[in-house]
């Protein structure tokens, strides 16, 4: 007899939907979640491009949160595969929500195992109760930890020399000082840009393609260099970094004539990321 997933009769709160097994959507904040946490793809599927853009804006440049809170106050932890209906107190397991996200075999079924103990790290979570927002003071505890250990020395060395601007379409998200660095990580060489507002962007060579990896996912990246004004494009975002010391350094080129994994890229990155 084949297994048939039975959909819950109704979600706990009028604003919380269970569109299919493994997916929870919050209509109050227009975000969707699966067993790995907040999902850009599912948010686009159920709430459209506008909601996707807003979520990308909030998550962009952050580690992926491993804890989140829905607008009805319920809290989930993807590492412990458990949700609670008493918020951050974490005492009353929400069986319906836990089962919906993590299935019948999730760690929530065995609360005595230690996987569901109340040991919150609120600095690495997503709090939707106040309208939704990423806490940029997060530590490197999320599942997108690239192994980069930034410190004040990195910031002071680059502050005032390099200027960055981040845009989403015509909307400016950041304009100010930034730091560029490259570091070996568990994912290989990371070419990092850290903005003054706490956002951090890490670029990688993935099997011959330049990609960016952050809480929103993994995106192919296009890059150009025009007289020290270096632009990175992915999704609907554009990050520009400018430093007078880069003028005439590295091959010049636009998005249309750049092979992002060829000699152009390596020469450019060797000059930019020290």
Please supply descriptive tags for the structure shown above.
274 residues; alpha+beta; four-stranded antiparallel β-sheet
How would you describe this protein?
The protein is 16% helix and 33% strand. Strand 15 and strand 16 (229-234) form a beta hairpin. It is elongated, with a radius of gyration of 21 Å. Helix 1 runs antiparallel to helix 2. The model is unreliable at 1-12, 114-118, 120-124, 128-160 and 250-260 (pLDDT under 50). The chain has helices spanning 40-47, 49-59, 95-102, 152-158, 263-272, and strands at residues 16-20, 23-26, 31-34, 37-39, 67-69, 75-77, 82-84, 125-127, 163-168, 171-185, 188-195, 200-206, 209-214, 217-220, 222-226, 229-234, 237-242. A 9-stranded antiparallel sheet has the order 14-13-12-11-10-9-17-16-15. Strands 1-2-3-4 form a 4-stranded antiparallel sheet, sandwiched between helices. It contains 5 helices and 17 strands. It is of the alpha+beta class and 274 residues long. It starts with 15 loop residues before the first strand and ends with a helix.
**Spatial order of strands in the largest sheet:** 14-13-12-11-10-9-17-16-15
The number of distinct β-strands equals: 17
List SSEs in N-to-C order: EEEEHHEEEHEHEEEEEEEEEH
Strand-residue proportion = 25-35%
Q: Using only CA atoms, what is the Rg? A: 21 Å
What general form does the structure show?
elongated
Distance between the termini: 60 Å
Low-confidence spans: 1-12, 114-118, 120-124, 128-160, 250-260
Structural class: alpha+beta
User: How much is the average pLDDT?
Assistant: 75
Q: What's the main sheet like?
A: 9 strands, antiparallel
In helices, the fraction of residues equals 10-25%
What's the tally of helices? 5
